[in-house]
Amino acid sequence: MRSLNDIIEAVKDGEKPDYDELRYALLVLDFIGTMTQSMVLGLYGKDNLNGFDKLKIDNNYKMRQKAFSTDPKHYIGSFDPDLPGYQEDRARSQRIFNGLRRNLSPLDRAGLSDKAIGALLNLSDEGRFAIDFILRHMADNKE
Length: 143
Description:
By secondary structure, this protein is mostly helical. Helices cover about 75% and strands about 0% of the residues. It is built from eight helices and no strands. The protein has helices spanning about 5-10, 20-45, 50-70, 70-75, 85-105, 105-110, 115-120, 125-140. The mean pLDDT is about 75.
């Protein structure tokens, strides 16, 4: 069985993983979501949280509730790998991401802090999703 990341990337690439891979991927994501939500809610009552942090926690909770109560195909919206143009947009996003990864190795040449470089080089799926989202919005606004 492939890793969770490999299964997610395969779906984004338009592949159709087998039933058991998808079943177990859903269970892992549910576990991660449940544990994360539990940790986030544990922080909520802490006195050292500022208003912005509490707002982020509230928004995370609302997003999670919406995701769990919405048809997944509807929730994913324009990030549906079966939509026309999605695979082309994804390939473009991956080229940009891979270009960043290649070109940002020499820290002083990039002119970014070590922390910013680390964040760019270690982008998670959420980071790639954000880049994808930005590019799709830019494309939508050009039309």
